[in-house]
């Protein structure tokens, strides 16, 4: 923290080796370490400056996924950091508490850079979120879930012979193979991030215990929703609060939901509760004090067509073409029509609320603020989108499918906030 109150972070993108599988060293990439990056923690209202240092011998970027900020600071494909270079964006955190994240966004190579290990969490808190368990690493635990394919000598295989790209058969949580966590509190908040290239997870516990979903990608829900499963497609986040009794053991598992996106069954994380647990206050009935995103009656409606091809509205991403021009700070309705395959949809510098899926309201746990949403095959999903208020004629922002192979293949468009 500088004397003017600015929070300063240095994030160095580098190569390294990591022992995921016992006795085998894997070549990996990481940020300030050999795999993944540090959790950045800030509060609403903070001013942050970043020094992103690229020690790779090729260009990369770092994009702040879920952040509302000036387009020049976004870290998308137009903010390349050359090999050996440093990029220093700065902005003021001006959005509700959320579990956001960061990762590279080089056009055509995002899948590879994330898969090799470049990603981290970026947590924003505010007065509402502090009422939830907030002791980081104790009762507030981030879980970055990724699938990997290992070669017989323990290297990361980048074989991508599916239409979704690389699909792994082993799961890493926070870069750990076969992980477990010992919890010491009766209520634990897990921040789930699906940072996989293509795989979706239908999270639940093997003893079918229920938990409270308290937040979507871009903010707290109005009220907690009690559930025993929560599905996340790539790029999506959810926060859940789980209650434990002393000495209990359970396993966080991914179920096969038949959502149409590759998910499969995996044990993700063994959770062991200590024999003595710190009691915490019950979860508040009202979480977010921020009203849900509403688009005005006369809101502009834009339509986006997804098909089997990696295109949006029959066009592949073109770095030199602006697809949409949106007045900064407005609310619009974006209607996504999926005519083929499994996709999801993410919008930079925006938060949205899912209005309906095929004309029906989304499940209660998906009615909060989001920035990435699963679009089932054949579905029409309507979003009320609230855009950032940073007009800029020169720096485009992205919307795209967050299945990284699709994104790299061109399932992405550019918009200007003006
Ligand atoms: Cu997480 Cu445009 O990305
Ligand atoms: Cu897709």
What does this structure look like?
The protein has helices at residues 110-115, 404-409, and strands at residues 7-18, 26-31, 40-43, 47-54, 63-65, 86-87, 90-92, 98-103, 120-125, 140-148, 170-173, 176-177, 180-185, 187-194, 201-205, 211-216, 219-227, 230-232, 237-243, 249-255, 266-278, 301-306, 324-326, 331-338, 343-347, 350-357, 372-375, 380-387, 397-400, 412-417. It is an all-beta fold. The chain has three domains: 7-126, Immunoglobulin-like; 140-278, Cupredoxins -  blue copper proteins (Immunoglobulin-like), CATH 2.60.40.420; 301-417, Sandwich (Immunoglobulin-like). The strands form six sheets. The protein has a seven-stranded mixed sheet with strand order 12-11-10-14-19-16-17, with no helix packed on it. A hairpin with a 7-residue loop joins strand 1 (7-18) and strand 2. The longest helix is centred in the N-terminal third of the chain and has 6 residues, at 110-115. It is globular and about 60 Å long. Bound molecules: CU-O-CU linkage and copper (II) ion. The site of CU-O-CU linkage has 10 residues, from strand 5 and strand 29.
Topology summary:
Blueprint: E1 7-18, E2 26-31, E3 40-43, E4 47-54, E5 63-65, E6 86-87, E7 90-92, E8 98-103, H1 110-115, E9 120-125, E10 140-148, E11 170-173, E12 176-177, E13 180-185, E14 187-194, E15 201-205, E16 211-216, E17 219-227, E18 230-232, E19 237-243, E20 249-255, E21 266-278, E22 301-306, E23 324-326, E24 331-338, E25 343-347, E26 350-357, E27 372-375, E28 380-387, E29 397-400, H2 404-409, E30 412-417
Parallel strand pairs: 1-4, 3-9, 10-14, 13-21, 22-24, 23-30
Antiparallel strand pairs: 1-2, 4-6, 4-7, 5-8, 8-9, 10-11, 11-12, 14-19, 15-18, 15-20, 16-17, 16-19, 20-21, 24-28, 25-27, 25-29, 26-28, 29-30
Bound molecules: CU-O-CU linkage (C2O) and copper (II) ion.
């Amino acid at each position: 923290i500088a004397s003017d109150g600015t929070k300063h972070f240095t994030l160095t993108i580098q190569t390294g080796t990591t022992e995921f599988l016992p006795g085998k060293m894997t070549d990996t990439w990481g940020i300030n370490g050999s795999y993944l990056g540090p959790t950045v923690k800030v509060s609403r209202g903070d001013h942050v400056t970043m020094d992103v240092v690229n020690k790779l011998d090729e260009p990369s970027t770092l994009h702040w996924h879920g952040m509302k900020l000036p387009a020049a600071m976004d870290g998308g494909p137009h903010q390349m950091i050359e090999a050996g270079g440093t990029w220093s964006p700065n902005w003021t955190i001006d959005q509700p508490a959320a579990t956001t994240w960061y990762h590279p966004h080089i056009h055509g190579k995002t899948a590879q850079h994330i898969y090799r290990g470049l990603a981290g969490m970026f947590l924003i808190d505010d007065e509402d979120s502090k009422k939830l368990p907030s002791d980081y690493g104790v009762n507030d635990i981030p879980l970055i879930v990724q699938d990997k394919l290992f070669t017989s000598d323990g290297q990361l295989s980048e074989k991508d012979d599916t239409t979704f790209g690389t699909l792994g058969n082993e799961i890493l949580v926070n870069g750990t193979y076969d992980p477990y966590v010992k919890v010491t509190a009766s209520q634990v908040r897990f921040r789930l991030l699906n940072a996989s290239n293509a795989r979706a997870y239908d999270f639940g516990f093997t003893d079918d215990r229920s938990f409270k979903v308290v937040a979507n990608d871009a903010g707290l829900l109005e009220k907690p929703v009690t559930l025993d499963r929560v599905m996340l497609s790539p790029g999506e986040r959810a926060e859940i609060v789980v209650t434990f009794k002393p000495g209990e053991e359970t396993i966080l598992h991914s179920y096969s939901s038949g959502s149409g996106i590759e998910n499969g069954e995996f044990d993700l994380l063994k959770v062991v509760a200590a024999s003595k647990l710190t009691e915490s206050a019950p979860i508040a009935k009202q979480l977010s004090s921020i009203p849900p995103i509403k688009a005005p009656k006369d809101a502009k409606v834009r339509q986006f067509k997804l098909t089997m091809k990696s295109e949006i509205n029959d066009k592949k991403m073109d770095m030199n073409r602006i697809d949409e021009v949106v007045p900064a700070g407005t609310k619009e309705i974006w209607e996504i029509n999926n005519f083929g395959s499994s996709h999801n949809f993410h919008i930079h510098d925006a938060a949205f609320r899912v209005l309906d899926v095929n004309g029906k309201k989304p499940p209660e746990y998906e009615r909060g603020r989001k920035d990435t949403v699963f679009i089932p095959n054949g579905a029409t999903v309507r979003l009320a989108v609230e855009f950032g208020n940073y007009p800029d004629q020169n720096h485009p922002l992205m919307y795209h499918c967050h299945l990284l192979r699709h994104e790299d293949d061109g399932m992405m468009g550019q918009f200007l906030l003006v």
